[in-house]
Amino acid sequence: MMKEKIRMGMVGGGKQAFIGAVHRMAANLDGLIELCCGAFSSNAENSIASGKDLFLPEDRVYTSFTEMILTESKLPATERMHFVSIVTPNHLHFEPAMLALENGFHVLIDKPITFSLEEAKALKQKAEETGLMICLTHTYSGYPMVKQAKQMVASGDLGKIRKVVVEYPQGWLSNPAPSDNKQAAWRADPAKSGISGCMADVGTHAAHLAEYISGLQITKICADLNILVEGRLLDDDGNVLLKFNNGANGVLFASQIAAGEENAIKIYVYGEKGGLEWHQMEPNTLTVKWLDQPMQVYRTGNGYNSDIAKYNTRTPSGHPEGYLEAFANIYKNFAQTISALQSEEKPSPEMLDFPGAEDGVRGMAFIENVVASSKSDQKWFDFKI
After folding, report:
1. Can you give the residue ranges of the Gfo/Idh/MocA-like oxidoreductase N-terminal domain (predicted)?
2. pLDDT tens digit string along 223-261?
């Protein structure tokens, strides 16, 4: 049982920042976490105004992440934050994360974990050296029916996995973005997003979901990235063939120019005995298709689901749980892990069920290998880390 609320500091996520508000709602959902401080913007006035809107004490609202982390580290253990949540564009992930680890704070970061694979490896190494935890918000792994799917695969219900197909189509970047669209602007800027656009933004979610549910690791890729809106500097569409470490093959496509699509991530996993499919826009349903039996439909909140699915379910069947609840599951499990470590207890497997530093390293490796593969005439690229 948790002895106190886990205190969170936030870097980024100020006024009019969509994802910052989502993080705060998710962190607050189970009542286990409280926002105690923040450096919400590189603009001092915006950070201070954001802190006021969130009813934080003036002396816990900072104008830079450096000031926040160093000041918080000097506060009494009963007052300072336990972890920092970093909700900035990609190029601003590494420095606050590394500084937080160096000063004794756990870290939660939006994906992708860093700007480069080298930075991701450095963060993972620092976390291992310090014994501190890194959590990565691959939100889709937080859904109860995704966890049900993972458990069924791990239990051998589908037999040996042969094929994984995952798709992530969006349409919001089908046209050149208006100049005042900050969410689109930084994602299309190599100085802020990195070497990839679409594959870094949504392709990494698809790759993580494929590995999470299947329990396999990608070992080879063959990629084709595209820029379909004139004037863009980074990919807005891509297709990737996959090979996995058990011999299975797969297909991943991600696009942000799929006109008319909203946020339609889907996954299909096929084994020797049957297959399953899950659609994020109908998240409470998991469809299982058997080779020699009628199709089954699993629904969130029912007693027949696995213990891990139930552990991440809040409401009875027929009461939909969605994106915020899945996001909150990652925060809940991370907070419970921190609390256990604070009490010098061993976190349970359920607590530790959140994406971490290793997932972050593999995500950055996915980006760099996909970009290299797309630029090459070589058919298959080894998935190098």
Report:
1. 6-135
2. 999 999 999 999 999 999 999 999 999 999 999 999 999
pLDDT digits (tens, 9 = 90+) for 274-287: 999 999 999 999 99
For the chain, the structural domain boundaries read 6-140+328-355, 144-315+363-375
| pLDDT digit string, tens, across residues 116-165 | 999 999 999 999 999 999 999 999 999 999 999 999 999 999 999 999 99
- Apex 154 CA angle, 152 and 156, nearest 5: 75
Q: Per this entry, what is the length of the chain?
A: 385
Contacts (Cβ under 8 Å, ≥6 apart) of 27 = 8, 33, 35, 85, 328, 331, 335
Tell the CATH topology of 144-315+363-375: Dihydrodipicolinate Reductase; domain 2 (3.30.360)
